[in-house]
Automatic annotation (TrEMBL):
GO function term, MF aspect, one: ATP binding
Protein name: ATP-binding cassette domain-containing protein
Keyword annotations: ATP-binding, Cell inner membrane, Cell membrane, Membrane, Nucleotide-binding, Translocase, Transport
PROSITE patterns tied to this protein: ABC_TRANSPORTER_1, ABC_TRANSPORTER_2
Gene3D superfamilies in the cross-refs: P-loop containing nucleotide triphosphate hydrolases
Length: 229
């Protein structure tokens, strides 16, 4: 379970204020207009921003002031997920060994993660030798390998074409179902949200205006999600 209690985060003249409880294993679409605070919320959960007030707990542990590396999270952003000078297997291995000193067991886990995202045989390639979809898969493999209870995704696949995007969303969904990971994905696209998520949190000008099961929110034709339908 992930809980934000009385959180206030200030960015210039913008303030995000949130009280939220996200159940373990939920897959949440974080939606809202541009500038509503989605990235601010994800950065606060990641530990890149610290709140001025309030408390964040993850699985019962207070992480409000915990550094990024000490939080039970993995992060996937839209781009810049891979280091261009490291090959595929090293990019993935960074998820478990930041100094890249791997035990034989670590190496086996890297290969296993590669296989899960169907990139067997590509471990020696450089990111520049991969398509956009394959690069996304490498980043996803690293997220998998980290094996953290909470995954934070900030419009991770918006640069991909619709077919690849659908494929990646389906893959993430399968992986989350297998591992029971809790997921929060910022997205502008309700169709993408439907492919992966079972809950929706909608932000408007830094406030949570909807926190509900996604299917129920979509059924409510005149509700706050209406502009995204
Ligand atoms: N470093 C900063 N300094 C000042 N204001 C900032 C900073 N970063 C973000 N903001 C402001 O905070 C508000 C929320 O931005 P945020 O990036 O969280 O929105 P978002 O919902 O993720 O938008 P988008 O969908 O466009 O990515 C915006 O008004 C933005 O201008």
């Amino acid at each position: 379970m992930l809980r934000l209690e009385g959180i206030r985060v200030t960015q210039g003249s913008f303030t995000l204020a949130a009280d939220l409880t996200i159940p373990k294993g939920a897959r949440v679409a974080l939606m809202g207009a541009s500038g509503s605070g989605k990235s601010t919320l994800l950065s606060t959960l990641s530990g890149f921003l610290w709140p001025d007030a309030g408390r964040i707990t993850m699985a019962g542990v207070d992480v409000t002031k915990a550094p990024v590396a000490d939080r039970p999270i993995s992060i996937l952003f839209q781009d810049g997920n891979l280091f261009p000078h490291l090959n595929v297997s090293d990019n993935i291995a960074l998820g478990i060994a930041p100094n890249l000193r791997l035990t034989p067991e670590d190496r086996a886990r890297v290969l296993e993660a590669l296989a899960k995202v169907e990139l067997d045989g590509m471990s020696d390639r450089m990111p520049s030798e991969l398509s956009g979809g394959q690069q996304s898969r490498v980043a996803l493999a690293r997220m998998l390998l980290r094996d953290k209870p909470i995954a934070l995704l900030d419009e991770p696949f918006s640069a991909l074409d619709p077919g690849l995007r659908r494929e990646m969303l389906g893959l993430v969904r399968t992986l989350c179902e297998e591992t029971g990971q809790t997921l929060i994905m910022a997205t502008h696209d309700l169709r993408d949200a439907e492919k992966l998520c079972d809950r929706v949190v909608l932000l408007d000008a830094g406030k949570v205006v909807l926190d509900a099961p996604l299917k129920q929110a979509i059924r409510d034709r005149n509700g706050p999600l209406e502009p995204w339908m």
